[in-house]
Write a structure and sequence with these properties.
The chain contains nine helices and six strands. The chain has 227 residues and is an alpha+beta fold. The protein has two domains: 30 residues; 190 residues, Glutaredoxin (3-Layer(aba) Sandwich). It has a six-stranded mixed β-sheet, sandwiched between helices. The N and C termini lie far apart (63 Å). It binds calcium ion. Calcium ion binds next to β4 and α8.
Length: 227
């Protein structure tokens, strides 16, 4: 009888725990800056060697986006939050921005990432414009749209991009090793969603909560002043 009672108590605990999890998931409200995940106490340590940077190289705060040119939410983030960051923090020299490719959408993610890496290698002056052109070209429906022809067509807008070089880099996967570096960062930092936005050592739970982003940047600026 005693054993049965213990079994029942264990079962009840499991059921209550499961109900709690369901309750928490169903109450997943937008988070504020106070609910952000803190990876560790220091810099998150993302190795940005060879990665594109936008803004002043000596800007004290670094924001990294893990994104995918095939990801509609990344496009939306780039159109809504990113311009605010540029205006409020990047243009003032307080924040620099970097972008790491994520390949969650298969071959099209890979092709666009290889194209972007090629442009960054050979025509770094137009990298961010090409990056924006890729997101601008993303259609509303989520069907296939990234082909080598489409990538070359987008690149035609930029006279400094060598079309032949770009074609070769994508077709022969010349820049795949650069994309692999990004993939390794995705694994190393346990990136599971796009866009993932990281401000120094802080991973934003909701990358669309601009107030929370500002709060973190302000806090980081204060920390730098007090260092
Ligand atoms: Ca990269």
């Amino acid at each position: 009888m005693g054993k049965l009672y213990i079994k029942f108590a264990v079962l009840l605990t499991v059921v209550i725990a499961a109900l709690l999890v369901i309750f928490v998931i169903s109450n997943n409200k937008p988070v504020t800056g106070k609910e952000i995940v803190k990876e560790n106490d220091k810099e998150i340590g993302i190795d940005l060697t060879g990665q594109p940077l936008f803004g002043l190289a000596d800007a004290p705060i670094t924001i990294v986006e893990f994104g995918d040119f095939k990801c509609p939410t990344c496009k939306y983030w780039g159109e809504t939050i990113y311009p605010k960051l540029v205006e409020d923090f990047i243009s003032t020299g307080n924040v620099k921005f970097s972008y790491i490719n994520v390949l969650f959408h298969g071959p099209e993610s890979l092709a666009s990432a290889m194209a972007a890496e090629s442009v960054y290698q050979h025509s770094p002056d137009v990298y961010w414009s090409f990056h924006k052109a890729l997101y601008d070209a993303q259609p509303k429906d989520e069907g296939q749209w990234i082909t080598i022809d489409k990538l070359l067509e987008l690149a035609k807008e930029f006279p400094s991009i060598d079309q032949e070089q770009l074609k070769q880099d994508i077709e022969q996967e010349v820049t795949k090793d650069k994309v692999r570096i990004d993939e390794d960062l995705v694994s190393k930092h346990n990136i599971t969603v796009t866009p993932t936005i990281i401000i120094n050592d802080i991973i934003m739970v909701d990358p669309f909560d601009y107030e929370a982003i500002k709060e973190v940047i302000d806090q980081k600026q204060e920390d730098k002043i007090n260092e």
